[in-house]
Each structure stands twice: as C-alpha cells, then as structure tokens.
Amino acid sequence: MPDYNKVHIKFKLNGIHYSYTNLMEVAYSFVKEGQPYKQVIGNFLLNWLDKNDYVEVNTSGSTGNPKCIKIKKQAMVDSVIATGNFFNLKPGDSVLHCLPTKFIAGKMMLIRAIILGLEIDTVEPKSTPNFNKNKHYDFTAMIPLQLQNSLSYCSHIKTLIVGGASVSKSLRGDIKALKTDVFETYGMTETITHIAVKKINNIDNSSNTIAKSYFKILPNVSISQDENECLVIDAPKVADGKIVTNDVVKLYSETEFEWLGRYDNVINSGGIKLYPEQIEAKLQNKISKRFFISSIPDKTFGNAVVLVLEHGANDLKNSVFSDLSAYEKPKHIYNISQFIETPSGKIQRNKTLEAVLLS
Known about the structure:
By secondary structure, this protein is an alpha/beta fold.
C-alpha cells in the first residue's frame, strides 16, 4: 500500500517530473506567482506535503450549512487505490484536471496522480475547459456542464467520470455516440468522493438500455438500507463508522443500487410518495430554464407538488406535463429571479422556496 508521504517516481505535473522536495517548491511558486486556480492548487499541495496526517476539507452544504472536516491522508490514499483498481489506472497514464481544487473531487485528482504515478495536466476549472484537444487522455473528471460543453472534444479521452450534479436525460442521449466511456459517480466529501459508479454510455444492448445500469460499489465498500430505505455506507478504509445518507435507494444486489432521490425532498401527496428528482427527469427536455420540483402544504392532499422556475414565465403549455401522472403534475408554478445556491453551486431548494413564498 503506497504511503501518503511519498511521490510516485512516474508522477508528472504539466509535463514535468517532480520529487517530493521539488513538488513543495513548485507549490510555493504557484501560491506566490500563479493564476488564482493555480494558487488554490499550490495551497492544497502544501497541505498535502506537510507533516500533518490529515487535510481539512469543506463539505458542499447541499443539505445544510457547509462545514470543515478533517480527513486522514492515508484514507485518501485508500480511496485513490480503489479508483485506480476499478478503472485500471497505471503509472504513466495521462489525466486531465479541470475541476476546482477547492473541493474534494479536485483534490483527489491531484492525489491520484501523485500516488499512482500519473501524468496530470491542470487547466482552469471553467464551464468549458480549455484543454489540448489533440492530446490523448486516459482519465478525467468533469461536472455535467463541462461534459456538455466538451462533447465535440472528448474523442481523445478514454474514461471520463462525471459528478457533482445529476446527469440530465438530454446529456445521456448526447453521450451515446461518444467512444469515451462515461461513468456517473455517487459519493460525498465524507466518503472522499465516489464510492460507487454507474456506466451511462457504451452499454451492451443486452442490458436493455441505460436505465438498467445501476450504481456499482467500489472495492472495500459495503451497502445496506435503514428503516427509511436510505443508503447506509460502510467503507472502513475511507471513513470511520457507517455513514447513514439521506439518499433513498433500491438495492438490486450486495454491490448494486438505484438512486431514487433525497429523503428530505420526498413529497407525500394523498398518501403517494413522490420523488422530485424523478419528476424533474421527466421534465428536463421540456423546460429550457433552470427549475426544480418541491411541495407546499395542502388541505386536500397533505402536500401539493409545485414547480419553481428561475428567470421563467408561468405560461408553460399543458403538453409540458404530459408524461406526468396526476399526482406528479404541479398544482402551482412559481418564479424567482435567481435560485439560492451553496458555495459549490448546488441549488438550496428549501431556502429558494421560502424566498418565493415570502415574496
């Protein structure tokens, strides 16, 4: 098992070999003279190379206030090994780093390169990454928006993982023609990024389309459910104790599961459980503006489904909702100029809905 205080002999950063000492020096130069995104990279490298056995990482705050937690460096190495084994990453493989290093997914791209001996190229983490379109990359990670904006230039990327937000139905359709193997990821800061992945293109027809592709857990991870059918993760190499999530899932085996939605988002309308995320998936190709599904109290149904639009007009045609059941169809449509978001860009549904109802 590699140790966190070692730099792999094959490791390259932007085409240059660096030893432990040299990497410390380049980190200082990034902090002192680099562009803002390189300053973030430099600060993280200095944290990774210091004498502490942990790094401090901010959670995304998608279901509450963001917080700072300490993660053991060796646990991060264990996560790297699991990812490397699953995707068969080998010393000398080339990887593209286009995520913000401020968050755990970006940090882990750098650690994978350092520990596994990968050759990593860093570019500014923009919505349309500006990378060498003619260079072959064995591996990279993107958010859905970056993937959407890079579809024309992905032909030289062998494997691409996408996370940070759900992958829309339209984007799933767009990547069907890609030779690149694309995997959606499931994980969180507390599990040191993904603990499960799902292949979403280039799937054998015998598996009956993408819908039959479920999340498959990585090595040294086990899963179960609690009384609310929420996913429980046991990953002793990367987290202390079991992690009880707020994600409602359906288990298909000891290693596979389907994500249904967030427990704290579930709508009970007339005794029927509705998952906003599944309703949103049916509407993604029919509403051009950003939107989300939520609910408000209702005397008849207990809770009524509502649609919240950003920069939108509530003159949607009835045909937009043709794929929805009677329970799923929004009883009210609200508008707001801008959604309230977490620092990492995730929509804060409850706070946004509160702002709408108070306006």
